């Protein structure tokens, strides 16, 4: 009787396993296609077909300010490293030898098996230096004559003849832009967050280096892989082979057509750097790489260091702040391969993924990093792409409208060498004219393709989902044309307002009162203006789907839950009107704060649309700031 029960249980187990197995197999081959078609249909039906109007997102919005605070610097000074690696040379520090006499150090190469396993290779003992050849990562253990010890895991750039021989500018396509690519990003940093938390780096990048910031760069999906895969492959996850980890019969990420493969096949040395191996972009939910994806790859280092981190102060590896390990590696990579074409993509998550403020502690280091890149000449033949995947996604910030809008508008910037603007005048002008236009990760892919091999036309075609930033993108581009699902689209919906509504009178009154207040001190010469005609009023509001977006329903981020009731705190109106005397025409954006029913308008937000000409002659030289608003009573 005991047997009978055993067999029944066995039979049930086998049936269940088979059911689950077939179900998973079915799911993994079919749900991707079905979701792909659904998303296409959603975009067709619900995306706003109107030209994108970007939301107005003040840096000091009270909705966001409550989440901001300063953080203390990252202090690793209590620790001293005995050995350091520069390029491929790892050497014992002189000051340690002076202090402690000759050291005995054991260097063990750490070798990558695959994305989830590393092994130790042979150990070499030395009392001077060690050259990295087999691996970029070494486990180092040193003993001094006073029998004190020091251990750490170090990383550098190994010398490899095969990489060296395969790469060179002579192999780079003639019609490429012949630039190195240095793309480096932080996780979860919106454009506004970058300006708020990394102000020194932002100023240096934009003012001193002339970096160009994309103000209309909008995400096309939720999460890091959804943000980066279109940049790196030109496609979304649903358009690529299934590589999800939790399904069987799926492939490794090696099948993805990564753009670094194209660069590598055309003479470039490639590198992919990412910290946080346990939540890796291509390893957390996806199956990871079997073959190492790029010539240099930091994952084995971060896997090896993981178990050792407890030894050091918070956010440190020995004497070095952890984010600087990656920044140093980038500098080393560009120095070792100075004469070679290079493509590097680095992505840092530890400081910013779960914390809104911690990234502020890296501002000085990022600034220094940018200065070093410039001063060493790296930026003279490199396009620097400083970027992020998306804005902050977690917690309370996501429950505010501005937080949601900022989440959809990550920081994304390009900086070209100074000579580039002269040598490639037309495409550089196009690039500049695209800064305020709606742009997406698909466009970045097309842009990178052009860097390798220039193919794009001067005028972008709105029928194409991806338009290179070197083409002129028509400013009337909509989220639908750019293939952005409605709940990811940060562009505002807008509608014409019936001019008989009460709000219209209030808006017009606010506008002329603001102008009249501004000229009030000069009433003896500037006339009091009255509204003679309201031409139009439009109301802008965040798209309904953005307001309703709550979270993803599935683990892959393919299905949206649209059940949120995010509070809309304000509406924005645009108004155009005419005043007398003088028939002046003004336009303005006015914010209506719903909580206290208050209209908010600053004089700087009012623009004069028609010429003021001789009307302002009386104050022309004395009060030039009044010219737009003053109708002179006397000549
Ligand atoms: C590094 O070497 C130490 C012994 O010196 C060992 O305990 C540790 O596990 C090694 N770490 C790795 C990641 O191999
Ligand atoms: C960039 O570096 C060059 C020298 O390589 C220097 O002349 C220039 O002043 C630097 N620019 C900035 C903004 O630091
Ligand atoms: C930058 O590169 C250009 C063109 O290759 C060269 O003429 C110029 O001297 C370089 N400038 C610096 C500061 O290295
Ligand atoms: C505006 O509202 C008035 C009164 O409700 C209505 O008569 C008029 O047709 C509306 N105008 C437009 C353009 O919808
Ligand atoms: C104009 O000035 C008056 C008096 O200083 C003030 O009460 C009013 O709020 C101002 N109105 C606007 C729209 O600035």
Automatic annotation (TrEMBL):
<keyword id="KW-1133">Transmembrane helix</keyword>
<keyword id="KW-0472">Membrane</keyword>
<dbReference type="GO" id="GO:0005615">
    <property type="term" value="C:extracellular space"/>
</dbReference>
<feature type="transmembrane region" description="Helical">
    <location>
        <begin position="7"/>
        <end position="26"/>
    </location>
</feature>
<dbReference type="Pfam" id="PF02995">
    <property type="entry name" value="DUF229"/>
</dbReference>
<protein>
    <submittedName>
        <fullName>Uncharacterized protein</fullName>
    </submittedName>
</protein>
<dbReference type="InterPro" id="IPR004245">
    <property type="entry name" value="DUF229"/>
</dbReference>
<dbReference type="InterPro" id="IPR017850">
    <property type="entry name" value="Alkaline_phosphatase_core_sf"/>
</dbReference>
<keyword id="KW-0812">Transmembrane</keyword>
């Amino acid at each position: 009787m005991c047997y009978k029960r055993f067999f029944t249980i066995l039979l049930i187990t086998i049936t269940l396993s088979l059911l689950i197995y077939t179900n998973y197999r079915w799911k993994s081959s079919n749900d991707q296609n079905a979701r792909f078609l659904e998303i296409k249909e959603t975009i067709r039906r619900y995306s706003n077909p109107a030209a994108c109007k970007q939301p107005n997102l003040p840096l000091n919005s009270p909705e966001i300010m409550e989440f901001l605070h300063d953080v203390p610097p990252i202090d690793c000074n209590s620790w001293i490293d005995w050995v350091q690696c520069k390029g491929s040379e790892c050497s014992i520090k002189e000051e340690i030898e002076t202090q402690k006499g000759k050291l005995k150090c054991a260097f063990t190469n750490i070798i990558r098996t695959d994305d989830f396993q590393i092994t130790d290779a042979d150990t070499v003992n030395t009392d001077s230096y060690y050259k990295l050849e087999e691996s970029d990562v070494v486990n180092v253990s040193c003993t001094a004559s006073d029998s004190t010890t020091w251990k750490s895991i170090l990383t550098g750039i190994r010398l490899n003849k095969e990489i060296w021989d395969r790469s060179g500018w002579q192999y780079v396509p003639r019609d490429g832009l012949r630039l190195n690519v240095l793309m480096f990003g932080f996780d979860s940093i919106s454009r506004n967050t970058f300006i708020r938390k990394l102000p020194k780096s932002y100023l240096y990048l934009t003012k001193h280096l002339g970096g160009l910031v994309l103000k209309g760069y909008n995400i096309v999906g939720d999460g890091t892989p959804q943000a980066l895969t279109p940049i790196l492959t030109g496609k979304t996850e649903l358009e690529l082979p299934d590589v999800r980890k939790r399904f069987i019969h799926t492939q490794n990420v090696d099948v993805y057509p990564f753009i670094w493969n194209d660069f590598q096949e055309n003479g470039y040395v490639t590198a992919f750097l990412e910290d946080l191996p346990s939540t890796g972009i291509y390893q957390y939910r996806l199956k990871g790489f079997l073959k190492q994806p790029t010539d240099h790859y930091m994952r084995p280092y971060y896997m090896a260091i993981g178990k050792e981190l407890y030894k050091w102060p918070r956010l440190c590896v020995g004497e070095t702040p952890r984010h600087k390990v990656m920044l140093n590696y980038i500098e080393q990579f560009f120095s070792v391969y100075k004469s070679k074409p290079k493509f590097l993509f680095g992505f840092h998550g530890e400081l910013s993924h779960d914390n809104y403020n911690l990234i502020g502690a890296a501002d000085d280091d990022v600034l220094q990093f940018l200065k070093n890149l410039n001063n060493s000449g790296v930026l003279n033949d490199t396009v620097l792409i400083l970027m992020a995947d998306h804005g902050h996604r977690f917690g309370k910030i996501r429950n505010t409208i501005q937080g949601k809008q900022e989440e959809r508008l990550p920081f994304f910037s390009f900086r070209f060498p100074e000579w580039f603007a002269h040598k490639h005048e037309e495409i550089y002008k196009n690039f500049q004219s695209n800064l305020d236009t709606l742009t997406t990760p698909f466009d970045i892919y097309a842009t990178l393709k052009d860097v390798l091999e220039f193919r794009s036309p001067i005028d972008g075609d709105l029928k194409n989902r991806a338009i290179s930033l070197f083409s002129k993108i028509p400013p009337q581009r909509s989220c639908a044309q750019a293939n952005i699902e409605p709940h990811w689209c940060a562009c505002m919906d807008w509608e014409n307002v019936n001019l008989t509504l009460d709000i219209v009178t209030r808006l017009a009154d606010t506008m002329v009162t603001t102008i009249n207040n501004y000229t009030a001190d000069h009433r003896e010469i500037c006339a009091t203006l009255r509204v003679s005609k309201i031409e139009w009023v439009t109301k802008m509001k965040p798209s309904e789907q953005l307001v309703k977006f709550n979270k993803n329903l599935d683990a892959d981020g393919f299905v949206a839950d649209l059940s949120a009731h995010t509070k809309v705190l304000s509406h924005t109106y645009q108004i155009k009107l005419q005043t007398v005397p003088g028939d002046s025409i003004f336009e303005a954006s006015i914010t209506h704060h719903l909580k206290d029913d208050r209209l908010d308008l600053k004089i700087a937000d009012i623009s004069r649309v028609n010429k003021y000409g001789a009307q302002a002659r009386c104050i022309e030289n004395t009060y030039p700031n009044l010219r737009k608003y003053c109708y002179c009573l006397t000549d």
